[in-house]
Amino acid sequence: MTDLQDLRTRVCALHTELTRWDLVAWTSGNVSARVPGTDRMVIKASGVSYDDLVPEHMVECDLHGRPVHDSGHSPSSDTAAHAYVYRALPGIGGVVHTHSPYATAWAARGEPIPCAVTAMADEFGGDIPVGPFSRIGDDSIGRGIVATLEHHRSPAVLMAHHGVFTVGATAKDAVKAAVMCEDVARTLHLARQNGPLERLPQEDIDALHDRYRNVYGQK
Ligand SMILES: O=C(CO)[C@@H](O)[C@@H](O)COP(=O)(O)O
Description:
This is L-ribulose-5-phosphate 4-epimerase. It contains seven helices and seven strands.
């Protein structure tokens, strides 16, 4: 198997995580990955049901979102947004988009999720911010993602009136951020039913984030 086929297989398989963690309804989300060492990416074909996905549905595009071959599949509607993120952020190897319900409810209100639990400090290093509304199709959404994330440690952004975009060093990291984003969005939505949320002190957020990055887990 070539490296590209292997990447397509892995990105295709990651879409099962979107359904497993209830992050998408019907076909409302997508995963992409940078093709390492190239100015290319692979991204899910538009509108294809997750049950029908095969690696060949991962469309190879340049970093302006143009397919590099006539594969017979149109790439995701969000291709230009993903491509802009890869162009602007060279350290990013994976991008994910979902309409996961609790996080998208915060996005619909245009409300950032405050860093009020340790799990948020760990994964997001602070609040999950809101990015501007843009119509789907060109790289406006990508510009909004990058402009918002450059002021935060969070790998997730709630794009106003739309949904969640996450980034990571790999596509799997970006999927993890999407799962964790929905988890904390639900927890904090439930918490504030009985009163206002209290943000953790900044020094605790910093210490927790540092511990998670440098001590947590296996060496
Ligand atoms: O957010 C939206 C539409 O609101 C799209 O990302 C979503 O439907 C997925 O589109 P694709 O099937 O990836 O073209």
